[in-house]
Amino acid sequence: MVVGQSAQAGVTYLWMLFLVFLIALGLGKSLEVYSAQIQREKEAELLLVGRLYRDAIKAYYLSSPGSVRKYPERLDDLLRDPRHLTLRRYIRQLYPDPVSGEAFEVVVAPEGGIKGVHSPSAKLAFKEANFPVGMRSSKTPPQYRDWVFFYDGE
Fold first, then answer.
1. Is 17 within a domain?
2. Is the full-model pTM beyond 0.85?
């Protein structure tokens, strides 16, 4: 040991390293909580947008002229119904999937046309039960692409 140097040299450095470790640990945990909060917000938005599509498909189906009811052939038909002379809109715009940012994938009805939509995202969802009417999830734990928003006729 060098003359004039105490036996405690380097302890402050170790305490500072420990403090930096604790701060990094706290930041990591807060980022994890923030990420989960963002995902829950996107999940809630997906439920809202999915219900908008479901309600638009239902309105399109129920407003079919004549006695034969039909589903829309394309999602664009929800923006402007080609079956009527006057302008009919069932949805304001074609919303992207809030989780992936991509366009929704369609669910084709057996008799033709689009009866529903679902997310293309393979991300695992938080919500696993108590889905609203006109929606189902086929797997547990569900991925967002398993959330199907549909209208099955009357």
1. no
2. no
